[in-house]
Amino acid sequence: MRTNKHNTKWEQVEEFKLRLTKDLESESSYCNLCKLSLTPRRDLISRHSQYSDVHKENLKNKILSIQSLGLLDEIIVNPELVEQNSSLKVTEYHPSWNIGRPWLQYEEKTPYTAYCHSCQGPLWASIHSIRRHEGSDKHKLKSITSDTNKLDSFNYQQAMAKIQMCVFIVNQGLAFRLIDSLVPYFKIMFYDSAILADFYQNRKQLVPILKDVIVPTHKERLGHILKINFFSLLVDESTDVSIKQCMCIVVRYFCPETNSVRESLWDLVSIFDGDEKTKADAETLSEKIFETFRNYDVPLTNILGFSSDTASVMIGVNNSVAQKLSKHNPCVTLVKCSCHIQHLCASDAVKTLPPIYQNINNFFYNYLSPSSKRCHRWRILQIKSKLKPLRLLKPIFSRWLSIYPCMKRILGRWSSLRRFFAAEVKRTKGDATAKKLLAYLRNPTNKLYHSYLVTMYMKLYLVMKTLQYEKPLLSEQHTITKIFT
């Protein structure tokens, strides 16, 4: 009787590959899936593989285990295992699987695997395996954490964009309402930007960002520098367009980050807070100044210098802000505003001249500026005289640098102005203002006085500009004092 033996060639058949081996204890065949010895006959082995329910169930469980755990890492390292075992029933990655699954990506190492960004691990390239992984608790938890981090990063970028836009508008001195039309233009220009897609900002949001984000952050950083460094204090009062009296506080300090001396706005304090009994005296002003530094734990002993205008409430000897500041630090150096002193000296000197020379600039400007027809006739006259058409400048008494350009412009157009007002007197048939200005221009003494004032105001103008330089000018002190010699 013929005895059948296991044939090793059967193990290479596609139908039995990686599932059929020789039984170690006999000459029979052995099914690795069912853990069962089989009669070494090919027809019986094939029947077992095709029709046995137990074998089919074991094969299904084996494929699932391979997809989830066992063979996936081996396939990543050795993709030829898939080609050696056709029973794994794997497919190549399909791009349509990415639809609705931003966490899924094609794994380039092998066409039979995918990659989950949320779980940071490989997956079997099967739609059933991907769906099963998508519904697992582990993936859901990882996806929530990943989306939250991504959302926080995205919101941070949008918040920084809003802050940068606010800083740009403030630094350039632009109107806040500009942002209402600026954001739509940005969306048109940068249509593919994810940050601008849901970006919304208007001027109503600009003020809270400045008050609640930029200003506190800036003052906190500046306060930290002032805590450990000496600084000087510059104070001045002002009245805004709403007739609200404010006090501007500027600090001059050494910045360790840039290794340079810088000036920064510390605070803009309202003097009257609605209390009728509040007075703008030295006690109130000094207390408001000190309070701004106490709020940020800045010691008043770090103040080495104090500068202000020549008002008695600021620099008086007996009862002033400077006197109260010296109680906290007796070493405080008092520096009066040099520009203010120069202007007061020049203003008092002009009072010794006839009164008309103090207001003559206003007379010329007020006659021409309200009437567009007069301005047009003045422009045509300059063009006919082959001169560059220039307008008369408006003098502002409190703006020291504006007086010299106004007087220089009138002196430079003296002959043209005389012809212009002569024509105006004829046209208006004896207008009183035009007659007075024409008489002023025809008097040679007035031109002599005017030339003298232009020369003196030019020296004052140069000194003012020199004192307002940002660079130190101690080495040029001799040149500055030589102007008046």
TrEMBL record:
Record SUPFAM superfamilies: Ribonuclease H-like (SSF53098)
Alphabetical list of PANTHER family matching this protein: BED-TYPE DOMAIN-CONTAINING PROTEIN, HAT FAMILY DIMERISATION DOMAINCONTAINING PROTEIN-RELATED
Organism expressing this protein natively: Trichogramma kaykai
Protein's recorded name: DUF4371 domain-containing protein
